[in-house]
């Protein structure tokens, strides 16, 4: 698992909007809030992503983009994003390569899924904030993430 101060692993994944996103496309331009979550349209994941949606303008003011990541497929992402009007992309990680690269693949149950985790990556591609939940029913609030982004701006 990469630590704060490490260069963030790059990726190139397709999102619910049909576009392909890579971490390198934001380098030098924007901070990236990389949000791993276990599953689309589940109670805790929905509450978490809706919280970020409701603070979208604040993230934008801090020059940050949110990228959601789970192991769900594009059809599930599209349905979830439309249902809750998420203004940020939900990336499909079908081979679980991004989850593995960030050390957040949770094994157990029927299928391996992403553990709930958030990484904030600065404009140079360096991880400046990392939180991986030990109990996946908990989540990071938008206030905590916005505070971390404000500290990066100082």
UniProtKB/TrEMBL annotation:
<dbReference type="InterPro" id="IPR036249">
    <property type="entry name" value="Thioredoxin-like_sf"/>
</dbReference>
<protein>
    <recommendedName>
        <fullName>thioredoxin-dependent peroxiredoxin</fullName>
        <ecNumber>1.11.1.24</ecNumber>
    </recommendedName>
</protein>
<dbReference type="Pfam" id="PF00578">
    <property type="entry name" value="AhpC-TSA"/>
</dbReference>
<dbReference type="InterPro" id="IPR000866">
    <property type="entry name" value="AhpC/TSA"/>
</dbReference>
<dbReference type="InterPro" id="IPR013766">
    <property type="entry name" value="Thioredoxin_domain"/>
</dbReference>
<dbReference type="InterPro" id="IPR050924">
    <property type="entry name" value="Peroxiredoxin_BCP/PrxQ"/>
</dbReference>
<comment type="subunit">
    <text>Monomer.</text>
</comment>
<keyword id="KW-0676">Redox-active center</keyword>
<keyword id="KW-0049">Antioxidant</keyword>
<keyword id="KW-1015">Disulfide bond</keyword>
<comment type="function">
    <text>Thiol-specific peroxidase that catalyzes the reduction of hydrogen peroxide and organic hydroperoxides to water and alcohols, respectively. Plays a role in cell protection against oxidative stress by detoxifying peroxides and as sensor of hydrogen peroxide-mediated signaling events.</text>
</comment>
<dbReference type="InterPro" id="IPR024706">
    <property type="entry name" value="Peroxiredoxin_AhpC-typ"/>
</dbReference>
<feature type="domain" description="Thioredoxin">
    <location>
        <begin position="2"/>
        <end position="154"/>
    </location>
</feature>
<keyword id="KW-0575">Peroxidase</keyword>
<comment type="similarity">
    <text>Belongs to the peroxiredoxin family. BCP/PrxQ subfamily.</text>
</comment>
<keyword id="KW-0560">Oxidoreductase</keyword>
């Amino acid at each position: 698992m990469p630590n704060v101060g490490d260069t963030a692993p790059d990726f190139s994944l397709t999102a619910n909007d049909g576009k392909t996103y890579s971490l390198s496309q934001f380098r030098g331009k924007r901070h990236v809030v990389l949000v791993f979550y276990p599953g689309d349209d589940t109670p805790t994941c929905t509450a978490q992503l809706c919280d970020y949606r409701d603070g979208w303008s604040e993230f934008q003011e801090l020059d940050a983009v949110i990228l959601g990541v789970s192991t769900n497929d594009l059809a599930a992402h599209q349905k979830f994003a439309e249902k809750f009007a998420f203004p940020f992309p939900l990336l499909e990680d079908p081979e679980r390569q991004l989850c593995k690269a960030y050390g957040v693949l949770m094994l157990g149950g029927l299928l391996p899924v992403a553990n709930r985790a958030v990484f904030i990556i600065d404009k140079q591609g360096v991880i400046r904030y990392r939180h991986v939940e030990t109990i996946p029913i908990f989540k990071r609030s938008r206030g905590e993430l916005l505070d971390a982004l404000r500290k990066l701006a100082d």
